[in-house]
Amino acid sequence: MTEMPVDSVRVAPDEGALRETIRQRVAAAGTSFYWAMRLLPEERRHGMYAVYAFCREVDDIADDDARPPEGKEAALAEWRAEIDALYAGHPRHLVALALREPLARYALRREDFTAVIDGMAMDAVEIRAPDLPTLDLYCARVAGAVGHLSVHVFGDQSPAAHEVADALGRALQLTNILRDLDEDATRGRLYLPREILERHGIRDDEPLAVLRHPALPAVCRDLALIARGYFAEAESAMARCSRRAMRPAAVMSAFYRAMLDALVRSDWRDLSHRVSLSKPLKLWLVLRHGLV
């Protein structure tokens, strides 16, 4: 018999208390997305908190080093069942309960939730030098699908908004990959694509060995170019969307473009140093892209 998820509840909490619990979880995560989410009107903001909390739940399963692969698979299967329960109208998990209202209000798509879980299932096993199509599928699932959920909450469900979700999701995820090389390697993961590694004479897929290879910066510069292309695609599609609705997306694009620029300047010389944006820079980017 499958165990109930840790946060399953037998009595639905008060809506205000539920919202505050989810907000606190998002704030405690220290994510840059929190800055962008706070630009939204109250109802949409709480909708995004719930979507982010779901993503955090399944991501934590994939990143749990103490849990064996079969345990991760079982925990993600519980979340697949929970999403089914959510759409059937009887969720049990605290985060799924928080998703009930945004699901109904913003027509969130079931396939986007399941795509995120599918992406985390890819993360639950060691990923080592995937080919470009596999890397693209991974980015589409763990980031693009989140973007599709997000644009619904933002208030623009147009084809152009979904183009933003696809392109910006890939841009953000590739930037994350280029930022987190060292951290991922400690988990046995290497997301740099095989084709680019081989182009620069790297035929090893052992993460730490690749990170020590002298051609690593050249590989990273090539992947950064691909990310820049996706940022440009997202910007072009965003111009055809509701400017007001896309403010959070514009802020996240600005944050991650600045991060990618900093990574390129660092040329991946010291992978132990995690590149991040200062709080004043984030505030300036919010003012420039989110409030003007």
Written overview of the protein:
The protein has 292 residues and is mainly α. It has 2 domains: 1-108, Orthogonal Bundle (Farnesyl Diphosphate Synthase); 126-292, Farnesyl Diphosphate Synthase (Orthogonal Bundle), CATH 1.10.600.10. It has helices spanning 15-28, 33-37, 42-62, 69-88, 94-106, 110-123, 132-154, 159-179, 181-186, 194-199, 207-212, 216-238, 247-266, 279-290. Helix 3 (42-62) runs antiparallel to helix 7, helix 8 packs antiparallel against helix 12 and helix 12 packs antiparallel against helix 13. The longest helix has 23 residues, at 132-154. It is globular. The termini are far apart. Residues 1-6 have low confidence and may be disordered.
General shape? globular
Main beta sheet: none
Strand content: under 5%
| Mean pLDDT, all residues | 92
CATH architecture of the largest domain: Orthogonal Bundle
Kindly report the CATH topology of the largest domain: Farnesyl Diphosphate Synthase
Element order: H for helix, E for strand: HHHHHHHHHHHHHH
Helix content: 55-70%
The level 1 CATH classification of the largest domain is Mainly Alpha
Q: List segments where confidence is low: pLDDT < 50 over at least 5 consecutive residues.
A: 1-6
Question: How many individual helices?
Answer: 14
Radius of gyration: 19 Å
Query: What class would the helix/strand composition place it in?
Result: mainly alpha
CATH superfamily of the largest domain: Farnesyl Diphosphate Synthase
The quaternary state of the protein chains shown equals single chain
